[in-house]
Automatic annotation (TrEMBL):
Protein name: DegV family protein with EDD domain
InterPro entries: DegV, DegV_C, DegV_domain_contain
Signal peptide region: none
SUPFAM superfamilies (alphabetical): DAK1/DegV-like
Listed PROSITE patterns: DEGV (PS51482)
Keywords: Lipid-binding
Listed Pfam families: DegV (PF02645)
Lineage: superkingdom: Bacteria
NCBIfam families in alphabetical order: DegV
Native species: Nonomuraea endophytica
GO molecular function, one term: lipid binding
Lineage: Bacteria, Bacillati, Actinomycetota, Actinomycetes, Streptosporangiales
């Protein structure tokens, strides 16, 4: 029998298939045509993105209820970055079973780690409240730093209004950013890509200290740099339990642009 509490997330977690986790995809829009993430693998230069509709969440929740689940925890990317949480909440309000929607206040593995925490709790037979709390506790303890080659993509999509204010017209610097209060915010000004990545690495090491951690290195079209960063972190983190190396998909990719490198870490 399936666990009584089902876990739902969206495609911006970029997790591999996880038992007990159902993924509702966001969409990539190209010339007016919608493609589910991760199906679209084309050029990201001219795409826009869209959250799932409430009806898509409603269909997912009905399917899980029909499969025998008695409650759902639905965990999604930050409401500061997308309307996905709002769509899930609309569907939850009319669902035939209790649905608790959790805003991860992050994205990519900043969302993925809370989803995994919830899935572990659900697999152990935990209650709706306990599964949701597992996700929220993980989300609160998870930190994300990332580097982009240029702010242009984030600036155009309106995802870095605070950063645009801070950096003014100096969009040629190498921005070091982080997720804070659910939003993408500038962290430091760095003049070269090498220094930016090195500083991000140092921040991750400082945040982890000697504590047991799980860590993800994420990238877009930068596999060699991501692999090198992962290997350096593996050597510098004595408490590292698990290291994930992954490429983000089209929805996040459309906003960050090629060359993005990110580090997400969470207590193990």
């Amino acid at each position: 029998m399936p666990p009584s509490v089902a876990v739902v997330t969206d495609s911006t977690a970029y997790l591999p298939a996880v038992e007990g986790v159902t993924v509702v995809p966001l969409s990539v829009l190209v010339a007016g045509e919608a493609h589910d993430e991760p199906d679209y693998t084309g050029d990201l230069a001219a795409v826009t993105t869209s959250q799932p509709s409430p009806e898509r969440f409603a269909t997912c929740y009905r399917t899980l209820a029909a499969a025998g689940h008695t409650a759902i925890v639905s965990i999604h990317l930050s409401a500061e970055l997308s309307g996905t949480v709002g769509a899930a909440e609309l569907a939850a309000a009319s669902a035939d079973l209790p649905v608790e929607v959790v805003d991860s206040r992050s994205l990519a593995m900043g969302l993925g780690y809370p989803v995994l925490a919830a899935a572990r709790a659900a697999a152990q037979g935990a209650s709706l409240t306990t599964v949701a709390e597992a996700a929220r506790t993980s989300a609160a303890a998870t930190r994300t730093f990332f580097y982009v080659d240029t702010l242009d993509h984030l600036h155009r999509s309106g995802r870095v209004s605070a950063a645009a204010t801070l950096f003014g017209s100096a969009l040629m610097i190498k921005p070091l950013l982080h997720i804070k209060d659910g939003a993408i915010q500038p962290l430091e000004k760095v003049r070269t890509a090498t220094r930016a990545v090195a500083r991000m690495e140092d921040l991750a090491v400082q945040a982890a200290a000697s504590s047991p951690v799980d860590l993800a290195v994420q990238h877009l079209a930068a596999p060699d740099r991501a692999q090198a960063l992962a290997e350096r972190l593996r050597k510098r983190l004595p408490g590292l339990r698990d290291l994930t190396l992954a490429e983000v998909g089209a929805v996040v990719g459309a906003h960050v642009g090629p060359g993005m490198l990110g580090i997400t870490l969470t207590p193990a």
